[in-house]
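Let us work through a complete example step by step.
Step 1: write down the sequence.
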Amino acid sequence: MTLQHVALETRQGDIGAELRFWALLGFEPVAAPGRLAARATWVQSGARQIHLLHTEDPVIPPHGHVAVVCPDYAPTLDALREAGFEVDERARHWGEPRCFTRSPGGHRVEVMAAPPP
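Step 2: predict the structure and record it as tokens.
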């Protein structure tokens, strides 16, 4: 079994900034099929997607998060910082660097150099 996508509620006005944020993490826009395109914006990296669900009042969990593996970890952190995102580096529980940041819509995102073993 493989996780295919995560859906995040996002204000319509934040979609452009969210697309720029996810591009820094290696995700590119893809077309949502049919009528879904009117209510969601999709981005994809490899076989994995983030679905940005358009809503006026998004629910943003304070500690829940999406985790992404970025093999180009250091350059990715540099790009996030240069774009104005705060990066909170965390303990290396499995020996690999990782950090947390927040997307423009407020979602917590963990960025990892490698996944846990």
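Step 3: interpret the result. The longest strand covers residues 48-54.
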